[in-house]
Amino acid sequence: MKINEKIIKSIFTLTIISIITACGQQKESKPTVKAKVHSYKQIKNLRGEVTDAKGPVLEGVINVTDSKGKVVASTQLENTRHYTVDIPAGTTLPIVLSIKSANQTEKLQAVIISTAIAKYDISTMTTKIAKRAKELGGYTHSNMIMAADSTIGVLESNKTSTGFRGDPTRQYGGWH
Question: 75 with 83: CB under 8 angstroms?
Fold first, then answer.
């Protein structure tokens, strides 16, 4: 009987050690959520207006960069605050429109995360939203929504599915 007890104790001890070792060696698995990648299927013409805290921005170069910082398109403002720029087919979102003219103290930005909209204003507000979304972890749809919500002081009564003061293309510079 004493031999069987020793064998049982040994097996029990080995089992406990194996379990503890196995638990310690397991890697934590993080759930992977893949965001849908959006890209332009054909050339897309984007347009909008550029304003800063002082008013309309009339001069400067608007660069369009992809998520790696590569310039994919650009356009020049020449005595107008209105711009148009053609985005090449195959360009993957998000993309960033940015401009810094000689008169500006900071670069203005607008982030594009949707292929459905063509009008994007570039302003101090869209710049704040872009910076906040980057701080939150990048230019994802959810980060852009959180950034806009925390940046723009919109009354609760005005947060409806019909959009910002009835025009959904004007809210947040038109990005959503």
Answer: yes
As a whole number of angstroms, the distance between CA 60 and CA 121 comes to 15
Rounded Cα distance, 12 and 16, in Å: 6
Q: Which residue has the tokens 């720029």?
A: 85
Decide: 72 and 106 in contact? Cβ < 8 Å. Answer: no
SS3 17: helix
**4-41 confidence digits (pLDDT tens):** 666 666 665 555 565 655 555 555 555 555 667 889 99
- For residue 61, CA distances in Å to 18, 47, 85, 118 come to 65, 14, 11, 19
pTM here is 0.68
Q: N- to C-terminal Cα distance for the chain? A: 76
* DSSP label at residue 99: E
Cα→Cα distances 157→95, 125, 144, 161, 165, Å: 31, 21, 21, 11, 10
